[in-house]
Amino acid sequence: MAEELVLDTAIRDWVLIPLSVVMVLIGVLRYFVSKLMRSPAASPSPDPKLVREGQVVIRARNLRTNAQFIPTKAFKARKVYYTNEENGLLHVPKEDAQKAQAAMFSDPNMAMDMMKKNLSMIVPQTLTFAWVNFFFSGFVAAKIPFPLTQRFRGMLQNGIDLSTVDVSYVSSRSWYFLNLFGLRGLFSLILGEENATDDAQKMMQMGGGFGFNPAMSLGAEKDSLDIIQHDWALPKMERHAEDVLKKLLKK
Amino acid sequence: MASGGVTSDDVPILQTENLTSNVKSIYYSRTFLSIIGGVVAGIWGFTGLTGFVFYFLIMMVASIGLLAKSKFSVQTYFDNWSRILIEGVFGGLMSFVLFWSYPLMI
């Protein structure tokens, strides 16, 4: 069962190394392409209403994170200013929320931008996968350094219908997947933090970008402001400062 | 390794920017270590469980290093202990496996 297979060095030279090099280069290329596609998108002036709502959300978030530095009374006043049911800044009337959602779906520009973002992710991956499948399928390509159980056979050796080959020998398709996940760390090191792979996350955080639903983030911010437990930190600070000063005096 | 932003006292009040900067530097050092560790494990010819033990050993050494870098007061730089212990460990595992198998086939 666990006989040693000798892998041809030509496989290494013509399959594994080219595949890795291609995947690294594609990753770098995708990074620069997405950078190029992003810059012109920022220039058209955005809708002032959207910008205002984004700013309100940021202000409310600042209040929430720094709530412990202001007295309870001040915090309550600000909270009412934001979350009040009649004219609070974060309050969105029901009809407005529905309207905003409809507008977002009907706006072709926004959909295009999102499509572009997704395409720059999906297209290179699909192409590489098709390339690997077309040229390098049907043989054992590499040996991973640890044994796995029989269950992984379908995943790691698909394309090879031999039940006697040890599971640590993998096909080129599995080598592709190993590269896909393993190179992510390398990309974050060589391309810096503005990596295309975590672009989507950043878009979510910024909120001001495309595919941003103002009504929803306003509502979410309102809820989190509502449930916050206010605790004024400054009285504790005085005691802390006293401790530090005493410690300094002792020295 | 983990020279992030400057934080305030040892009261658990942290600036979010500084915290994210610190966490990011942990993440980078872990990724770097997992790649280098993978290459080293491959060159030394570890197979099977030994390699994974080696990986977690490296990560433990990294935790100790980070602890020393933060002058043994984790609360000054991070919001809780799990940051130093497990941040980036499982993300680096795939990189480790990949770079572990490179030297073995050459």
UniProtKB/TrEMBL annotation, chain A:
The entry's cellular-component GO terms read: EMC complex
Instruction: Name a Pfam family for this protein.
Output: EMC3_TMCO1
| Ranges annotated as spanning the membrane | 14-33, 119-142
Q: Which UniProt keywords apply?
A: Membrane, Transmembrane, Transmembrane helix
Compartments reported by the entry: Membrane
Q: Name one GO biological process term.
A: protein folding in endoplasmic reticulum
The domain of life is Eukaryota
Q: What's the chief localization of this chain?
A: membrane
InterPro entries given in the database record: EMC3 (IPR008568), EMC3/TMCO1 (IPR002809)
Record's bilayer topology term: Multi-pass membrane protein
Tell whether Membrane is among the UniProt keywords.
yes
Record family assignment: Belongs to the EMC3 family.
Protein name, UniProt field: ER membrane protein complex subunit 3
Q: What is the lineage of its organism?
A: Eukaryota, Viridiplantae, Streptophyta, Embryophyta, Tracheophyta
Automatic annotation (TrEMBL), chain B:
Q: What is its main location?
A: endoplasmic reticulum
Quote the subcellular location field of this record. Endoplasmic reticulum membrane
Stretches that traverse the bilayer: 27-46, 84-102
Q: Which InterPro entries match?
A: Emc6, EMC6-like
Topologically, how does it sit relative to the membrane?
Multi-pass membrane protein
Q: Which UniProt keywords apply?
A: Endoplasmic reticulum, Membrane, Transmembrane, Transmembrane helix
GO-annotated biological processes? autophagosome assembly; protein folding in endoplasmic reticulum
Gene Ontology terms, cellular component aspect?
EMC complex
Family label? Belongs to the EMC6 family.
Full protein name: ER membrane protein complex subunit 6
- What organism is recorded for this protein? Digitaria exilis
